[in-house]
Prior knowledge:
By secondary structure, this protein is α/β, with parallel strands linked by helices. The chain has helices at 13-24, 26-33, 77-87, 107-116, 127-142, 160-166, 181-191, 196-205, 214-217, 220-233, 253-261, 323-345, and strands at 2-9, 35-44, 47-50, 62-64, 67-69, 92-95, 120-123, 147-148, 172-178, 243-245, 265-275, 278-288, 302-308, 313-318.
Amino acid sequence: MRHIPIILLGYGNVGRAFVRLVEEKRDRLNQDYGLNLVWTTIFRREGRYDFPPIGESDHPVIEKDGLKFGELKTGRVLNDLKSLLREAPGGVMVDGSVSDQKTGQPGYDYWKKAFSWGWHVVTANKGPLVYDYKGLHNSAHQNRCGLGISGATAAALPTVDLALYALAGADIQSVEGILNGTSNYILTRMGEGVDYAEALSEAQGKGIAEPDPAMDVEGWDTAYKILLITNASTELKYSLNDVSVKGITSISRQEVEKAAREGKRIKLLGRFERTDTGGILEVAPRAVGPDHPLFWVNGTEKGITFETDTMGSISAVGGRSSPVGAAAALLKDLINIVRQHDNKSD
Length: 346
Ligand code: HSE
């Protein structure tokens, strides 16, 4: 049995779903993967929760989400995290927090420290990746650590894994994806006669919209994802400034209905296309017909199509946006990273 210390950053929808999922799957993780995930500390904006060391269950504890942990400690949380990374044996830092995509902070600094002290990172936090994916990937690699980004690149829908494993050796010529569940849900509901504002509020009720839903409906969440998928799946290195972004805020119900009369559906698509000089990256709503591989992707479902030189057109659909889907993507990366690094040391 491998005992893997876990530090969790963020205790919002995704962080909580991750805790619940690990507890639900604890026996399965033990039996099938030989993994015992050991909660070390949960950091949130207000402070940190520590866990009583195993065997010392008489610590003052709060019971929440199937866990027992100590009172919230407030104070210099950043310093606490850095010393914990240094002092505790390397494990996995799970990032369900939010960072600024212009500076990557505060996650960027935490991750660099984590790698330097031998911790793997799996993340649903896009900010540090948008800021400098290749730099962080290299930093993980140099320290023989893993960086799992599924949680930040459409979560339960396989995107980067598909490109890196299933399409290894093929040249990716284009990528097209419905990568944001909130805007796809809104467009689908508008097609069913529901108003934009009501559809958005339903999506917020499902816990999938970003804290600022403008990030979803103005196309930025899709822009981050297509940028990250492109940078992680190809040799190219783009920045957010290279992505032309248009969201769905100007789409009226009349437009959605007109598309339907023509047998089409409006979808918010993130696209990368290789050109002679590099490539084009864009996010924009498009009317697609039933011959399009993503026509049937409705509601909170997502989808992606890769065009390749040797394997043709490969699509994956499903992986609906939800906190549990994001948590499952974090867990998938964690399992795979620990397995890969175990194999290396065999
Ligand atoms: N807000 C995103 C979505 C989930 O609606 O798909 C997090 O990436």
